[in-house]
Specification:
Layout: E1 3-7, E2 10-13, E3 18-25, E4 28-39, E5 46-52, E6 57-59, E7 67-72, E8 77-82, E9 91-101, E10 106-110, E11 114-119
Parallel strand pairs: 2-11
Antiparallel strand pairs: 1-3, 3-8, 4-5, 4-9, 5-6, 7-8, 9-10, 9-11
Length: 120
């Protein structure tokens, strides 16, 4: 069983910074992709940023230049550094990982979400 646990959310003023973490646990062989999504009430979940085993990364246009995704493979952890936060960044942020297990094929997993609120 693979589990993703997010942390680091909270309340911050506009212009401030937060760092989200997502730690994976379980019988993991590899994680080809690790991503952050966010969702606000009434809207679909949207991709914020992704990091891939080849070293590439991608970002939503709305966060380019402000957010940075990184990963520590040894710790099986992905981070999202969020700078210059805006009220429109307020959302529940979800960690997502494509995982190849030690005895299981590629599957996709989600964390429980962590709330980010940016006050104006």
């Amino acid at each position: 069983q693979v589990r993703l646990v997010e942390s680091g959310g909270g309340l911050v003023q506009s212009g401030g910074s937060l760092r989200l973490s997502c730690a994976a646990s379980g019988r993991i062989f590899s994680m080809p992709a690790m991503r952050w999504y966010r969702q606000t009430p009434g809207k679909e979940r949207e991709l914020v940023a992704g990091t891939y085993s080849g070293g590439s990364a991608n970002y939503a246009d709305s966060v380019k230049g402000r957010f940075t995704i990184s990963r520590d493979n040894a710790k099986k952890t992905v981070y999202l550094q969020m700078n210059s936060l805006k009220p429109e960044d307020t959302a529940v942020y979800y960690c997502n990982a494509a995982v190849v297990g030690e005895t299981t094929p590629l599957n996709e997993y989600w964390g429980q979400g962590t709330g980010v609120t940016v006050s104006s």
